[in-house]
């Protein structure tokens, strides 16, 4: 989630909380009813924030997981490529060793 989107969500939630608070405070109800409304509004806002936190947490976790898999895939590809290169180098060195052994045996005769 981009920083701009996070700021927008925070602004919307803050505006909603302020609007609900002002609406409740100016409502023509008894104090006990107003306190219950404030308490309910607080619980609703808390649930909304918890939900947004969980969504953001899940999104970040998903992005890190996919990045980890991308890294692991790249690492595995690199190891595979290096393994093939190593085999090529070993084959080349073995052929050179065979040539040197042949030259050495000709020199010893």
From TrEMBL:
Coiled coil: none annotated. InterPro entries: Desiccation-related_membrane (IPR052928), YtxH (IPR024623). The keyword Transmembrane helix applies. The chain crosses the membrane at residues 6-27. Pfam families: YtxH. Keywords: Membrane, Transmembrane, Transmembrane helix. This is Gas vesicle protein.
């Amino acid at each position: 989630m981009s920083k701009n989107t996070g700021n927008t969500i925070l602004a919307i939630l803050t505006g909603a909380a302020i609007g609900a608070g002002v609406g409740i405070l100016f409502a023509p109800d008894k104090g006990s009813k107003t306190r219950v409304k404030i308490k309910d509004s607080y619980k609703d806002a808390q649930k909304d924030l918890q939900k947004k936190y969980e969504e953001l947490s899940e999104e970040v976790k998903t992005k890190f997981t996919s990045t980890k898999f991308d890294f692991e895939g790249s690492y595995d590809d690199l190891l595979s490529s290096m393994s093939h290169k190593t085999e090529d180098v070993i084959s080349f060195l073995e052929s050179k060793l065979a040539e040197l052994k042949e030259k050495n045996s000709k020199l010893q005769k």
